[in-house]
Amino acid sequence: MTDNITIREANANDIARIEYLVETTYRGEDSKKGWTTEFNLLAGTRLQKGEIAAALADKANQFFVAERDNIVVGVICVNKNGDWIEFGKFSVDPEMQGLGIGKMLIAKVEDFVRNIWGADKLKLSVISIRKELVDFYARYGFKDTGQRIDFIKIHPYVELKDGVSDFEVIIMEKSV
């Protein structure tokens, strides 16, 4: 299923497609086509204006994209802040989820962190009420560190949808 998928470093020409993927993977009507949607939980956009361009220009980040037939269908960003190395912006086109593209992107980041940055740990954050995402990452060897962060404190611009209570971000970690 992933025979014609290639992974490469992202560049400035990918910004619009990365923004589109992150938004359609998590928010809006199209996100409901995949299993990673936050449509019923959070209102508004997933990204702030200029966020991807700024992150791509920041030397502490490395973005990778998955391409199929020269179209970006997945993205992941890894960030290094001292010894804290975490990935995010992890998105796969909702219509292509379940094909192994996400697994390829995670494997690329693990290899990069280990062989280029020389690190042995990789972290991620996931919202606590998304049990299916927590379980997904656990299947790939990430373990709950027990650390919790108030979601609204780190994302004050995000609005919870009606009926959604305040929740936490779970920090997970894996040895690479």
Features:
two-stranded antiparallel ribbon; Aminopeptidase; alpha+beta; 9 strands; globular; 176 residues; 7-stranded mixed β-sheet
What does this protein structure show overall?
There is one protein chain. The chain is of the alpha+beta class and 176 residues long. It has a single domain, classed as Gcn5-related N-acetyltransferase (GNAT) (Aminopeptidase, 3-Layer(aba) Sandwich), CATH 3.40.630.30. It is built from five helices and nine strands, in the order E-H-E-H-E-E-E-H-E-H-E-H-E-E. The strands form two sheets. Strands 1-3-4-5-6-9-7 form a seven-stranded mixed sheet, sandwiched between helices. Strands 2-8 form a two-stranded antiparallel sheet. Strand 3 and strand 4 (71-81) form a beta hairpin. The model has no long low-confidence stretch (mean pLDDT 89).
Radius of gyration, CA atoms, in whole angstroms: 15 Å
CATH class: Alpha Beta
Kindly report the CATH topology.
Aminopeptidase
Largest sheet: 7 strands, mixed
Distance from N terminus to C terminus (CA atoms, Å) equals: 25 Å
What pattern of helices and strands is seen along the backbone?
Answer: EHEHEEEHEHEHEE
Coarse shape? globular
CATH architectural label = 3-Layer(aba) Sandwich
Low-confidence stretches: none
Helix vs. strand class: alpha+beta
What is the assigned CATH homologous superfamily?
Answer: Gcn5-related N-acetyltransferase (GNAT)
Q: Let me know the average pLDDT.
A: 89
Beta-strand proportion: 25-35%
